[in-house]
Amino acid sequence: MQFQFNTDNHIQGDDNLADKAESTVTGALGHLTDRLTRVEVHLADLNGAKGGSDDIRCTIEARPEGMQPHTVTHKDADIDASLRGAGKKLRTLLESEFGKLDKRR
């Protein structure tokens, strides 16, 4: 599985943050990573320097093998919470989609 990490100009996207994002998202997805070809994570600070609650948006796009891409978005107060929330949403979505597929087979 290929992992791609992007940030906007308000978030410093260094290697440490990229590694943290990858471990958080792949940890949330667990065994589902075997069925994915690529995962893209996009972090954005919606309010810039102003701060505030729910101003970090994490969008994750997962590309399952042989299927259309799936995207989830989660907003939270900090980067870690935003990554965890989006990872949980994506896991739920993919488990549902893969469960439907497996039932048909």
UniProtKB/TrEMBL annotation:
<protein>
    <recommendedName>
        <fullName>Sigma 54 modulation protein / S30EA ribosomal protein</fullName>
    </recommendedName>
</protein>
<dbReference type="InterPro" id="IPR036567">
    <property type="entry name" value="RHF-like"/>
</dbReference>
